[in-house]
């Protein structure tokens, strides 16, 4: 008797897609799911919102964020087919879901951070600031926002840059400044080079900030995934780990400050 192949057999144990599927089950998605509970009997049934959340989170983790590319991946990429339960949501449904629920998905950042804290990956320490450039999805001919005036002098009338230079001239200041290379700089490298997230898809300042929060959220998910995978490899139980056991700190990147259409089949 021939049976259809099981998607469970297509992915190895410990695969990122399996981790995303399990973690999404731990997140509070009530704000997203409730909007689909109010039905008026018109149109076709919507794709399951949990499935779409899994597709988007996995897509941002591996650098596949275009709704058209995600749709194509549900046909020819095993991990996406696994998360989509062998369904194939069209790109319009994926794009509309992201646009409609971006604020709610942005709120998941804190929940993922709490999961990282529970695993011992978050600790309070030095805060490093750095800047990078990510292309916007906007026309150069659009209106430009005026930059707020900035004062280059401190309350004592001395240029602020002189205060910074004096601090960096000390051994303590140099030691603190050098920590940027291990706190915040690797994060931008991972986001832009490894995950190829060099341009925002959303337009407008509010939506761009929300998408940046989503990028940082998935950065933290990848940290948590690698940590749990290392525990499985070494055979250590997650509940036995603690901050004092030498667990690596979560990259500070992840603090993230840096027309209605029904989703149908």
Tell me about the largest β-sheet: none
Q: What is the alpha-carbon Rg in Å?
A: 22 Å
Q: Low-confidence runs (pLDDT<50, min 5 residues)?
A: 239-253, 255-265
For the secondary structure, the number of strands is 0
Quaternary organisation of the protein chains: single chain
Could you give the order of the helices and strands? HHHHHHHHHHHH
Helix content: 40-55%
Measured distance between first and last alpha carbons: 33 Å
Describe the structure.
The chain is mostly helical and 265 residues long. The chain has a domain of 185 residues. 49% of the residues lie in helices and 0% in strands. It has twelve helices and no strands. Helix 1 crosses helix 3 and helix 6 crosses helix 12. The radius of gyration is 22 Å and the shape is globular. It starts with 15 loop residues before the first helix and ends in a 31-residue tail after the last helix.
What's the topology here?
Elements: H1 16-24, H2 30-33, H3 49-62, H4 67-76, H5 78-83, H6 91-106, H7 108-118, H8 160-168, H9 171-178, H10 180-183, H11 185-194, H12 205-234
Helix pairs in contact: 1-3, 3-6, 3-12, 4-6, 6-12, 7-12
Quick summary:
49% of the residues lie in helices and 0% in strands. It has 265 residues and is mainly alpha-helical.
Overview features:
single chain, 265 residues, mainly alpha, disordered C terminus
């Amino acid at each position: 008797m021939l049976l259809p192949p099981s998607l469970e057999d297509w992915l190895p144990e410990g695969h990122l897609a399996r981790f995303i599927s399990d973690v999404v089950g731990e997140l509070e998605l009530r704000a997203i799911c409730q909007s689909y509970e109010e039905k008026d009997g018109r149109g076709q049934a919507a794709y399951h919102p949990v499935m779409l959340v899994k597709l988007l989170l996995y897509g941002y983790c591996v650098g596949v964020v275009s709704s058209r590319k995600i749709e194509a991946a549900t046909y020819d990429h095993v991990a996406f087919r696994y998360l989509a339960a062998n369904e194939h949501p069209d790109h319009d449904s994926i794009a509309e879901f992201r646009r409609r629920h971006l604020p709610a998905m942005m709120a998941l950042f804190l929940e993922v951070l709490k999961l990282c804290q529970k695993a011992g990956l978050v600790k309070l320490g030095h805060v490093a600031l750095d800047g990078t450039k990510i292309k916007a999805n906007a026309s150069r001919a659009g209106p430009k926002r005026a930059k707020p005036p900035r004062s280059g002098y401190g309350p004592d009338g001395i240029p602020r840059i002189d205060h910074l230079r004096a601090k960096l001239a000390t051994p303590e200041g140099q030691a603190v400044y050098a920590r940027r290379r291990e706190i915040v700089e690797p994060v931008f490298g991972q986001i832009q080079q490894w995950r190829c997230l060099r341009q925002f898809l959303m337009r407008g300042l509010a939506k761009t900030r929300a998408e940046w929060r989503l990028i940082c959220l998935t950065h933290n998910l990848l940290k948590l995934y690698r940590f749990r995978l290392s525990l499985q490899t070494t055979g250590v139980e997650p509940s036995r780990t603690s901050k004092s056991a030498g667990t690596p700190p979560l990259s500070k990147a992840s603090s993230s400050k840096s027309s209605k259409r029904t989703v149908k089949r």
